[in-house]
């Protein structure tokens, strides 16, 4: 999202706007390193498409997935930063009559045997820098934690789902892009790391501005399409899903995304400062 990339655009010097296929792209310099910013959009397909173009056209030394995420751990606060020791897709698997069974995938590299991967581990050298940042951070720095980040084409507004994801995968955060980018990077042996700021708690605390919704129209839609099966919260989300132009984030949610994005960028830029010969 644009708020997630804005702090990086402010930090780079000699910023040059451009495009990478269908994706907005900016190139600049930070700490004498050439840095490219690619705005991939939301979801795994956007992320994978942008990652493929990035790898093919820009030939990066390393790729970082930055921005916001929802927390799966009650110990995390808004603005904390999660560095992904590994990433995985939580919505990839088998649907049975009894349950959803998560599964991995077979990674096919040219000239190599297929490799089954349940999750994508972060590059070890990059992760060592993350560990140093975590332990040497000044008091004014955002709190940094290291653990698993989940990716799925779902926006989680459910405490029950949040708890299930936490228990199933022992993960700290959930978002919609990193594991897809990690998979592309794994195909080409490109070092990868996800650095995400916490913007919400993946619960029923709705982050949307519903003040502009017509209550009569909402009631009519809910009655006609959903009956009495769903809660008012779920009916509101369903209405917004069918009327995307009415989908507006609340002021608080926008501020939380801004804080999460700024902290993600702050840690990522500190990361770039501390990179030596790792990449």
Automatic annotation (TrEMBL):
This is adenosylhomocysteine nucleosidase. GO terms for biological process: L-methionine salvage from methylthioadenosine; L-methionine salvage from S-adenosylmethionine; nucleoside catabolic process. One of its GO terms (cellular component) is cytosol. GO terms for molecular function: adenosylhomocysteine nucleosidase activity; methylthioadenosine nucleosidase activity. The keyword Hydrolase applies. It comes from the Bacteria. Pathway: Amino-acid biosynthesis; L-methionine biosynthesis via salvage pathway; S-methyl-5-thio-alpha-D-ribose 1-phosphate from S-methyl-5'-thioadenosine (hydrolase route): step 1/2. Its EC number is 3.2.2.9. Residues 1-205 form the Nucleoside phosphorylase domain. Keywords: Amino-acid biosynthesis, Hydrolase, Methionine biosynthesis. InterPro entries: MTA_SAH_Nsdase, Nucleoside_phosphorylase_d, Nucleoside_phosphorylase_sf. It holds the Pfam family PNP_UDP_1.
